[in-house]
Specification:
Layout: H1 14-24, E1 30-31, H2 47-50, H3 68-79, E2 90-93, H4 96-107, E3 113-118, H5 124-130, E4 134-142, E5 146-148, H6 150-156, E6 161-167, H7 179-192, E7 195-199, E8 225-230, H8 231-234, E9 243-248, H9 251-268, H10 273-308, E10 314-315, E11 323-327, H11 334-345, E12 347-348, E13 350-351, E14 362-366, H12 371-386
Parallel strand pairs: 1-12, 3-4, 3-6, 6-7, 7-8
Antiparallel strand pairs: 2-9, 4-5, 8-9, 10-11, 11-14, 13-14
Length: 392
């Protein structure tokens, strides 16, 4: 009766079942996976609420690509970051997930393929499945820092590859695309007639400066490219449901793409009027939210490094974003580590295989966690590492 695009099994995994059991038993859980800023004790300025007093909210005047005012607000946001973007190159969506869906509709026929990084956030397979396309992965490799394995990426290309997805910085590794890598990717895309799609939602959350980073693809000229972002991360407002894409590349190709994207967007008309009216204020007020999140992430990272100093665990190099990756001894699997931390130490972390890490044993921790919870949780992680629980 149901489409094969839907998963056949909706049963929760072992970690989720264990978490539910611990909470049902009344245990206090030190959650080191919090990624929702609205639940992380972040201070929000009152101007955000005031932005929704605009009387234009009561008028419906649909604009498939987004209202001119909202697109100009997004362009101004890029300008404050030193990147000039014509508002005509911007198309609004309800989220980056919807932007991916639009782009997969634009670029792919059923059975076509897109490349996506590994490790990365487990999103692309689900979105691609809903569009009846295939995801092939290219690896990020770690040698004291993360880099794209260009040889493996080239080997993953097929005649049906239509797009190459980048996450910049990556979630959860926190690694940025480098200028040299971007140059190689543009050459590949231009030569093969495929598009680059760059998810840049965490681009404002660098933990240190690096002149070799390529912060955005909005200025790419030699191949079709799309830069994605949205309020969810840049203003810490996931509930506001406003994302966008910026089209870049050769003018004729870019204009053809935007015309088709506007036609797709006209079919759904998903972006709400209130959030578009409030966009300029939300982006401006979001600067202070970003400041609080950056301070939180930097302080928690410093604490984690201190807490794990001298322990058997190490923190892989991280350049930005809200997460860190802990490499722990491979005496147990990631799932065993996560279950034991939860059952015996009341600490919730995510195993690396949630993000398609290719080897054991990695645990993912969120730097967005409230400081008191983070510090107690990391101390408990250290205790678990110094006195590892028996297996089975």
């Amino acid at each position: 009766m149901f489409s094969s695009r839907c998963p056949p099994d909706f049963q929760p995994n072992l970690l989720t079942r264990t978490l539910e059991a611990r909470r049902s038993a009344g245990a206090r859980i030190f959650d080191l996976t919090e990624s929702n800023p609205t639940r992380a004790g972040i201070v929000y300025p009152p101007g955000i609420l005031a932005a929704f007093q605009d009387p234009r909210i009561l008028r419906y005047d649909p604009a498939p690509a987004g209202t001119p005012e909202a697109r100009e607000a997004v362009a101004a946001w890029y300008a404050r970051r030193g990147c000039a973007v014509d508002p005509a190159r911007i198309l609004l969506t309800a989220s980056t997930s919807e932007a991916y869906a639009y782009l997969f509709k634009l670029l792919c026929d059923p059975g076509d393929c897109v490349l996506a990084p590994r490790p990365s956030y487990p999103l692309f397979e689900f979105l691609a499945r809903m569009e009846s396309i295939e995801v092939r992965q290219y690896p990020l490799v770690y040698h004291g820092g993360w880099a794209i394995d260009m040889q493996a990426l080239a080997a993953a290309l097929t005649p049906r590859t239509r797009a190459l997805v980048l996450v910049n910085p990556n979630n959860p590794t926190g690694s940025y695309l480098k200028r040299g890598e971007l140059g190689e990717l543009v050459q590949i895309a231009a030569a093969r007639g495929i598009a680059l799609i760059s998810d840049e939602v965490f681009s404002d959350y660098a933990l240190a400066e690096d002149p070799e980073r390529a912060l955005t693809l909005a200025g790419v000229e030699d191949c079709l490219a799309f830069s994605l972002s949205g309020l969810s991360k840049v203003a810490g407002l996931p509930q506001m449901k406003l994302g966008w894409m910026v089209a870049a590349g050769p003018e004729k190709l870019r204009q053809d793409a935007l015309a088709r994207l506007e036609w797709i967007a006209d079919t759904y008309l998903s972006v709400s009027t209130p959030v578009q009216c409030a966009a300029r204020t939300l982006l401006a007020e979001g600067e202070s939210v970003q400041h609080h999140i950056r301070e939180r992430a930097a302080a928690n990272l410093a604490w984690a490094r201190q807490a794990l100093r001298g322990s058997p665990a190490s923190i892989l190099q991280v350049e930005g974003g809200w997460s860190i990756t802990l490499q722990v001894p491979r005496v147990w699997s990631e799932e065993e580590w996560a279950i034991e931390l939860l059952e015996r130490h009341q600490v919730l972390v995510q195993p690396g295989f949630f993000y398609d890490f290719e080897a054991e044993a990695f645990l993912i921790v969120s730097l967005l966690t409230e400081p008191a919870v983070f510090r107690e949780g990391m101390e408990r992680v250290r205790q678990a590492l110094s006195q590892p629980p028996p297996s089975g």
